[in-house]
Amino acid sequence: MKNRHRIHTAAACAAGLLVLLQVCPARAGDEAERLTQLADTLEANCRAKHEAMQQAQKSWGKPMWEQERVMQDMQRNIECECLPARVRAAIPQLSRAMQANKKDEFDAILFAQTKNCHVVGYRQYVGRLCEVEPGAAKKTCECVAAGTDKLDDETVFSEIMASYKNFEQRVKDKTVPKYEGRMSAIEKACGMGK
Question: What interhelical angle do 66-76 and 31-60 show, nearest 10?
Fold first, then answer.
């Protein structure tokens, strides 16, 4: 398990957010239509990407680990279901921000949708992962899940993003120390990594 669950959760939403933040209306009055098209395109592209990934994995001739399957399901749920649905639900607010040319407000609304998908995706992923972890790893996973359940959404989101940022830094520079935050403390207390 380790902290890859946090890294993959952040990566899944980061890709969608980059696309969403590039939205700008071609002309006044078409905001809702463009946002609907964006959500539809985001969902369609995501499903095509995950279908291609599945086909590629089949061609390798090796079965996937159940843990990896859960991780892929989590990424697909965040990118293909949660983000498009949250954008559609926020179209009235997003349209008003676009009409008023309030980019900061528009970005903040999108960011809130993305944050929701991060947190919901993470919590669902950890719960499902614990169901497929074998033996002692299952108890460790359940301990981590119980510990993170006590954290508020803002903390979970901050920890996910900090872990992802640290991961990117360590890929570029091996001397950068691993991020140790509140989730890391929970994982250590549960015996993860021993």
Answer: 160
Tokens 């009055």 sit on residue: 29
Q: What is the pLDDT of residue 64?
A: 67
Give the containing element (helix H, strand E) for 46. helix 31-60
Name the token pair of 83.
């983000």
In a domain, 194, yes or no: no
Q: How many beta carbons lie within 10 A of that of residue 44, not counting itself?
A: 12
CA distance 192 to 175: 23
Q: What is the pLDDT of residues 9-36, one digit of tens each?
A: 555 555 555 555 555 544 556 888 888 9
Instruction: Give the tens place of pLDDT for each residue, 122-136.
Output: 888 888 888 888 888
Number of domains the chain is built from? 1
Q: Report DSSP letters for 85-111, one per residue.
A: HHHHHTHHHHHHHHHTT-HHHHHHHHH
pLDDT, one tens digit per residue, over 169-182 is: 999 999 999 889 99
Residue 103 within a domain? yes
Position 93 in a domain: yes
User: What is the longest distance spanned by two Cα atoms in the chain?
Assistant: 59
Distance separating alpha carbons of residues 20 and 29, to the nearest angstrom: 19
